[in-house]
Every structure is written in C-alpha cells, then in structure tokens.
Amino acid sequence: xxxxxxxxxxxxxxxxxQYVCVFVDLFNCEIVGFSTRxxxxxxLVYRAFASIKVDLHKIKLFHTDRxxxxxxxxxxxxxxxxxxxxxxxxxxxxx
Length: 95
What we know:
Elements: E1 3-13, E2 16-25, E3 30-37, H1 42-50, E4 61-64, H2 73-81, E5 85-88
Parallel strand pairs: 1-4, 4-5
Antiparallel strand pairs: 1-2, 2-3
C-alpha cells in the first residue's frame, strides 16, 4: 500500500453507461478500492478513495494521469489530509 495507482473507464450496464474508478496497490496489483457512478467526476474518484479499507496514512504515493477528475480541490484536500504525495503522468503520456 505504499504506492497506489488509479484510472477511470466506463462500461455499459442495462443500456446505460457507468464510469468506474479503480485504485490498485502497485506492489501486488490488487484492487484496493473502487466506485461506480453515471458521471465521470471528482466524486467518482473520491468515493473510490474512501472505499479503501486500510489506513490511508500507509499510502505514500498516488499516481494517476492528468484528467480533471484526479487533479482538483476535492482530491487535493483528501491527499493533503493523509499526507499522500501526488504523482502525475507526463503530458501526452498516459503511463
């Protein structure tokens, strides 16, 4: 749980699109948190963050791409609260 990575995708459920945010422990590739919503927004990411069952202070680094859902005040405040450093992909590079 030292480094957690996250990304968003979407799936079709009952003829409607749902967005999925997944948090993965980089050490063992285990899904440690997730959320689904009909909207692709910061709340989707925040709820996935809140679904993590371990002490969030254990996370030292959170890596994502540069999408607005990850880079906003709501997520900034959550990361600051738990003293988690942010890592963003380089522009034009999704990794």
